[in-house]
Amino acid sequence: MEQAFFLVTSLAGLKKLTFQQKIKALLEEHVQITALLAIVQFDEYEIARQTLQAMVKPEQAAQFEIRTMAELVANTSGVALRAEDQFNDDFETLPSKQFATQTIANGTIHRYIDAGEIVAETVTDATQTPLMKTRLVDNQPVQSVVYEDQRPAGMMTYQDGVIEQAMLLNAQGELVYRFIRHQHPVTYAYDMGRTSKLVFTNLLSETDDQKHVVYQAAEDRADYEVIDHVGYHRFSDAYEFYAQLLQTTVPEGAEIFIDLNDNPKLVEHLPQQLIFNY
């Protein structure tokens, strides 16, 4: 193997022990590695970047490349943002307080105060370069803009403090892709032998015909519909979008590694592609 390509879709994925072990093993084998950050929550990019960089020794840096979706679409044509999607940073004239961030090394968070309330926050790196700006209403985020290479690279809008939409921008600040969050119910069951020591104290158990103990539960999970604002194609879900991303980005001959949690849905869109899990 000469090249390995890792699709990273969540912070949880790159923190997996299996991910870290695979990266370490490939680096020791002198394999060229590319990690594509394809996390829809753009505010997690800097944390992901620092987490990945911490896995690589200085002498291995030339073997390891980190790419982002914003980088991939930087020179892609887009459409102008609507007036209601524009981010207004007029709050920067207000009084502010500064604090060290808990998640970004040597980062600073600036909180802007109006009438005794926090109305906005900005996060900067060690050189005071902006990483993210967020507007708040009633102490809940309503809109954020994320920066990459000192330019707006993505925007997010929130509903009740949860991301509602994320917009990926090109180098001119034009909209290229829109990610729309949808909630959908998921039902799942844990089936185990009667001698199992695993117990879910928050769920009621049942017994099936084979005398197995069964726990059933349901929850709402998030998925993203993706709209291409260049060709106006609507992707059925984020996994169809990821499949296109891999098909157009991964160099020929490179081996693809994806999160095991993404496998069931992603392989549906890449039926002929050899994929390895982490």
- Encode the helix/strand succession as letters: EHHEHEHEEEEEEEEEEEHEHE
Major sheet: size, sense and barrel closure? 11 strands, antiparallel
Radius of gyration: 21 Å
SS summary, helix count: 6
Percent range for helical residues? 10-25%
Domain count: 1
Number of strands: 16
Overall 3D geometry? globular
Structural class, from secondary structure content? alpha+beta
Give the terminus-to-terminus CA distance.
17 Å
How large is the share of residues in beta strands?
A: 35-45%
- Oligomer classification: single chain
Low-confidence stretches: none
Overall mean confidence score, pLDDT:
89
How would you sum up this structure, described in words?
The protein is α+β, with helices and mostly antiparallel strands. The protein has one domain (3-277). The chain contains 6 helices and 16 strands. Strand 13 (213-228) and strand 14 form a beta hairpin.
In short:
This protein has 6 helices and 16 strands. It is of the alpha+beta class. A hairpin with a 2-residue loop joins β9 and β10.
